Amino acid sequence: MWIWEHQIEALRKRFTLFIPDLIGHGRSEKPRIAYTPMTYLTWLEGFLNAVGIERADFVGNSMGCGLILATAIRSPERVGRLVLISGFPAQVLNRRGGSHLRRFLRLRMGFLFSLAYHLLGRRTLRTILRGIVCDPDQITPAVTERAYRLQKDYGKAWPLWSSLCQLHEWEQHYAPHIGQVSAPTLVLWGQNDGFFPPAVGEELHRSIPGSRFAVIPHAGHLPMWEQPDLVNRLILDFLTS
User: Fold this and answer.
1) Are 163 and 193 in contact (CB under 8 A)?
2) 187-216 pLDDT per residue, tens
3) Quick check: 126 pLDDT over 90?
């Protein structure tokens, strides 16, 4: 819920912004249900209807890219333009950074996943955060403490675990149709993304007809948080061109 903090001031001058926490994440409700792609799609459709939006431009990061890509595939009439930041490729678990997730899923280690989540301490969380950015010095004690408090106060393991277990639905029903996305699309990728390396972004870019692609130097998996001035300029140029 903090990763878009550097976009608000820059983008709200030109656009009306909605930055919701997805169902199961942040401060949103976390019912114990199956978190399938359709769960997220239904939630997003309900959110758009509730606030009276028929059509919108979408910006997503990582798993959020999967949601807006699925929306563009399922309901193209509701999508204006797409900005995809560091996600969401086909064969997610076969990409770099997926080995531990594959092991958890193969062994059906949901209990251990939940236990590890609830026992996650500040030091381990800081290590995780430093692993997804380029410059580890950006993960200050204040940043770590904020993320830790949010995780302890609002986080739950089940939505994350269930989402991982339902990735086959993404691979089967949505990933094969990425090439059908007709919305103008900008793909942005951190040069030093250790979770999904830039080659994954280039592949995603080639899969979407007419899309644009830009690599963000000195950035990992959260380029909009690490290099906000450049990312904001690219987003604004794309959405206003």
Assistant:
1) no
2) 999 999 988 999 999 999 999 999 999 999
3) yes
User: How many angstroms separate the CA atoms of 126 and 148, rounded?
Assistant: 9
Q: What backbone phi and psi angles, to 5 degrees, belong to 29? A: -60, 150
H or E element at residue 125 = helix 122-131
Question: How far apart are the C-alpha atoms of 72 and 49, rounded to whole Å?
Answer: 16
Contact of 98 with 72, CB cutoff 8 Å = no
What is the enclosing helix (H) or strand (E) of 61?
strand 56-61
Single pTM value for the model = 0.93
C-alpha span between 144 and 128 (Å, rounded): 10
Residues 6+ apart with CB under 8 A from 236: 10, 11, 14
| Token pair 């830790």: residue | 148
> Coil, strand, or helix at residue 185?
strand
Q: Look up residue 135 and give its two tokens.
A: 């410059």
